[in-house]
Amino acid sequence: DFVAGLSVILRGTIDDRLNWAFNLYDLNKDGCITKEEMLDIMKSIYDMMGKYTYPALREEAPREHVESFFQKMDRNK
């Protein structure tokens, strides 16, 4: 899976890359990305960045990031 994903990122068309990114966030594969799905991924990303980043990440940052994104991008409000 890792190598296939890397291949899409490096050599895929823009549509391939967009599909890959969408599928990364669509955890239950229902064709929609919910706030909860995006929050799960964002928390994982923030966890990988670690607690020792500068400036320090606030605990509520992932939720704020997701809320801001959905306010700007969600067409199904």
UniProtKB/TrEMBL annotation:
SUPFAM superfamilies, alphabetized: EF-hand
Superkingdom to which the source organism belongs: Eukaryota
UniProt keyword terms in alphabetical order: Calcium, Metal-binding, Repeat
GO MF assignments: calcium ion binding
EF-hand domain residues: 13-48
Gene3D superfamilies according to UniProt: EF-hand (1.10.238.10)
PANTHER family, per the entry: CALCIUM BINDING PROTEINS, KV CHANNEL-INTERACTING PROTEIN 2
Name of the protein: Kv channel-interacting protein
Gene from which the chain derives: KCHIP2
